[in-house]
Write a structure and sequence with these properties.
The complex is a heterodimer of chains A (221) and B (272). Chain A is mainly alpha-helical and 221 residues long. Helix content of chain A is 82%, strand content 0%. Chain A has a single domain, classed as MetI-like fold (Orthogonal Bundle). Helix content of chain B is 35%, strand content 25%. Classes of the chains: A mainly alpha (221), B alpha/beta (272). Chain A: It comes from Albidovulum sediminicola.
């Protein structure tokens, strides 16, 4: 079978798989960003309970394997009466895992904002929440965008693991097609190319655009 | 050890309530005493300049008044009300965050390194406090801010971000930003120390105007002795965490009484 024939026959399934991967990616990325913001801010909290929760979260999800976490959520939680469908389990595991890495980026970026910014906003009688929301986080965003670009690509690649709990994403389809055709080079090669297109032509340009837009807001554009 | 607070009044009353009163204020960093039992009154509309060698505690005075630093003992009053403490069951206790937020609203501060918000334009910098803290509408805040930017000569740069402004321009915006909160007391902490010599004048001129046209109470820390002498009502010379000598500028600069004051002033004159 020539490669065009292969594509003609299985292209539709790759597209279906790619759409599931895209959905997993977007949901996991949204969850990772939210978790990173909450936990990153909490880790800097003076309140020992808030700080403790953030430390446990970050240590657990950074210190153990994503694949094990995925299996744990999928196979172990039901034993405690908590059952999620596999699609939800997939993006939740990836989002929680990468969110832990993101939390450290958020924490580092907040700490990189000069002390004078805290003092100036304090001198305007702002509450800590207003300081964080209006003054500190907008500047921290700019500082953390480049490392987030890396993390988001890691996250995309991390979503390939959800195939192992039978979410029918791109990797899952590639494995299925390989299993029935034994055309490993074509089956996995096509998946590689699609992952690369996602990372190189969708995510990277978007992150660059975001960096430029943020730099413009600082008047540096 | 807890300080006995019973001899501090809950509120200053009488005909001559000062705008600012430091009462037995001590500040320590570990074993180092930065300010030692400071007593200082500043009357309404007065311009007081603090001078002294580095490490004498002069910047700490301003930072304590802005409540950026906590104090180890004593009480600071602003406009007759305690600033660092709040009344509770008839005695003063250390102020909580909420009380401090309200109390410090009567104080504005300008910093050596300006500390403008880099993600906002000059105008947005000035509007931020009035909108977010005082709850003014955007329109009111803009009117107030534009008026102040006009006064500091920065109205034509109002839509520029700080990164596009010179140090002197940034400091003038920072003064407008602090004034937009309508403080009763303004603090200037070495506001010209980070500036190139040729732009110092544009900042000192703004402060001169404030002194001559407004009845603001001001405390200033500076190394510009000539400027301090011109505009201050009183000079306080700090040494080793205490006021070594204070008086009207002509007396203190022209006829200092204490040896340390004489030494400091002659050392400064040589450096000029």
């Amino acid at each position: 079978m020539s490669y065009p024939e292969f594509l003609a026959q299985y292209g539709g399934r790759y597209i279906d798989g790619a759409l599931i991967t895209a959905a997993q990616f977007l949901l996991a990325a949204a969850l990772a960003v939210v978790m990173a913001l909450i936990m990153g801010v909490m880790k800097l909290s003076a309140n020992p309970v808030s700080k403790g929760i953030a430390v446990v979260y970050i240590e657990f999800f950074r210190g153990t394997s994503l694949l094990v976490q995925l299996f744990w959520l999928f196979y172990v939680l039901p034993l405690f009466g908590l059952t999620f469908d596999k699609f939800t389990t997939g993006f939740v595991a990836v989002g929680l895992n990468l969110g832990a890495y993101g939390a450290e980026l958020v924490r580092g970026a907040i700490q990189s904002v000069p002390k004078g910014q805290w003092e100036a906003s304090y001198a305007l009688s702002m509450s800590p929440a207003t300081q964080m929301r209006r003054i500190i986080l907008p500047q921290a965003f700019v500082a953390m965008l480049p490392p987030w670009g890396n993390l988001i690509i890691e996250l995309l690649k991390g979503t390939a693991l959800v195939a192992l709990i039978a979410v029918s994403d791109l990797m899952f389809e590639a494995r299925q097609i390989n299993g029935s055709t034994y055309l490993s080079a074509q089956a996995f090669g096509t998946a590689l190319i699609i992952y690369y297109i996602f990372a190189r032509f969708l995510i990277t340009p978007f992150m660059r655009w975001l960096e430029r837009a943020m730099a413009r807001r600082l008047g540096r554009g | 050890m807890m300080e006995d607070m019973s001899h501090y009044p809950l509120e200053l009353t009488g005909p001559d309530v000062p705008m600012v009163r430091f009462m037995n204020v001590t500040k320590r960093y570990g074993a180092l005493t930065v300010l030692d039992d400071l007593n200082l009154d500043v009357t309404e509309g007065e311009m007081v300049t603090i001078i002294g060698p580095s490490g004498s505690g002069k910047t700490t005075v301003l930072r304590m008044l802005m409540t950026l630093e906590t104090i180890n003992s004593g009480v600071i009053y602003v406009d007759g009300k305690p600033l660092t403490h709040m009344p509770k069951n008839g005695v003063l206790v250390p102020a909580d965050a909420k009380y401090l937020r309200r109390a410090r609203a009567s104080i504005g501060m300008c910093f050596q390194h300006f500390n403008l918000f880099p993600h906002m334009t000059a105008l947005e910098n000035c509007m931020e406090g009035p909108v977010q803290v005082l709850g003014l509408s955007k329109r009111e805040a803009r009117e107030r801010s534009e008026e102040l930017l006009e006064m500091v000569g920065m109205i034509d740069k109002k839509d520029q971000h700080p990164s596009r402004l010179s140090g002197g321009q940034q400091q003038r915006v920072a003064i407008a930003r602090a004034l937009a909160m309508r403080p009763k007391v303004m603090l200037f902490d070495e506001v010209t120390s980070a500036l190139d010599p040729e732009v110092i004048g544009e900042v000192t001129n703004v402060i001169r105007r404030l002194v001559s046209e407004h009845n603001l109470t001001m405390l200033m820390v500076t190394h510009q002795m000539g400027f301090a002498r011109d505009i201050s009502d009183r000079i306080c010379f700090f040494f080793g965490g205490r006021i070594e000598e204070q008086g009207p500028p002509d007396a203190l600069f022209g006829n200092p009484q204490r040896d340390r004051t004489k030494q400091f002033l002659s050392a400064v004159k040589e450096a000029d």
